[in-house]
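Operator note (shift B, R.M.): manual run for L-2,4-diaminobutyrate decarboxylase requested after the automated queue skipped it. Running by hand, logging everything below so the morning shift can see what happened. Input copied straight from the record, untouched. If output looks odd, do not overwrite the archive copy; leave it for review.
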Amino acid sequence: MSIVEQSMTSVAPLEPPAGSAAGLDRVRTLTEAALEVLGQVSAGRPGPVTAGGPAAVTNAARASLSGPLLPEHPAGALETFVTMVRDYATWSVDLSHPAALARMQCPPTPVAAASELVVGILNQSLHAWESGPYALELERYVVRELADLVGYGPEAGGTITAGGSISNLMAILTARDSVLAARMDRRAFADGLGALPRRPVVLATDATHFSIGRAAGICGIGEDGIVRVPSDELGRLLPAELDRTLTGLPADVLPVAVIACVGATDQGWVDDLPGLSEVCRRHGVWLHADAAYGGGALFSPRLRERLAGIAEADSVTLDLHKFGWTAATSGVFLLRDAAGLAPLSQQTTTLNAGDDAEAGFIGLYGNSVQATRRAEAFKIAVTMRALGRDGMAAMVDGCYELARYTADQVEARPGLELAARPAMTTVLFRFRDEDENDGDGHDLDALNGALRRRLMEQGTVLLARTRVRRPDGTQPVFLKIMILNPATTTAQIDHILDQIVHTATGLTR
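Run finished. Output pasted below as returned.
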């Protein structure tokens, strides 16, 4: 008996590959068991999350994960899987529940969820041709189609990313390299930012998503390299203020990017894209449109006009795990001119050998900041082709109408205050009485924070929180309803608001 054969007799039986005939049979058994458990958990939970709050989740996790990650004598695959699925599902947020209203997490469609299983079994990657030949063509197809939806021409390009933060990072990276190459003949990706005669900066408002600051830090510009442009009372970037700020920059500062908001995460407004693009062109600055949330309007003929001018932006961020009803992650980074990605492909490796490329064996390593990368385009393509143009429009419009209905009901209920009419699918409100304090000495900021936590502890309603800027300079706490589930009914919204008022009233007694 060989050494290899001897060693093989002393280990546990090997699991078959998931994509083999035996493996597919195991996957079928495991999937059926998981679906049964998920159904049981869903039927037994009345709210969007199991009641108990952080302490209950921590205690449950400690109990179920008390053993070692690598047990000496493991249970079988089916037993382990079922146990962990039950624990995971019990303490997860049920995004299909109508009261799961806190975050920009959509409930994926069944076809999107099933697509995840296929992606996991086949385990393709996009960095090299031999790692996923059809997956490569699928991503190119999805990028072309989405670029066309934005309004870009045949020179456009892009990549699927691990979410809006990575897309925004790539926007800062491509803007930095493109502007420094054009204005200073500097190859920033290769040469770095040392000894630059002018310091690169990014221009944005205080309402810009926090990922922009992180991206600026990673790209060597630094969070302190973000120049804050004065905005209007809502936080919108004004073309006139941008022009004034760019004109007044010191001579040793080089503006490389302006960040436009296309669907603010709180109030859903969209910056003046035509006006901003005209200013950026005149000053030779890259314009990036962060449409991670608002990009969903592209699917709706009714709402699309609010994104007028988006095709004038040099790059766009989309998140299809928000409006797109696919599972995370489904971020997209698009460029009006694919040449902006060139610095990423200049690094020579065995993944982009010249003779392979000439023969057509080309991966997408040079299009991304990642090497190994999942075939996220599969679930995007399956979902959109299954729903079609009218189906996607109906989903977006349904969420928008539900947000308008929710705002109407907030205004109609004594004790609730609406911040503003919804521009997209977010509804900002708070509990209050006639005075700034509720009459019994309750501070409204503290009260609404406590209300949110109480609802989560009870497992009845999940809400987000934010601060709303007011003309007098104050920024009171408001609660946020985020509607991304078009299956929610108006009766369910009524019930949710009644629960909120009832719980808030109990807190003030």
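Quick read of the result: Residues 17-92 form one domain. The two ends are 79 Å apart (CA to CA).
Leaving this for review. - R.M.
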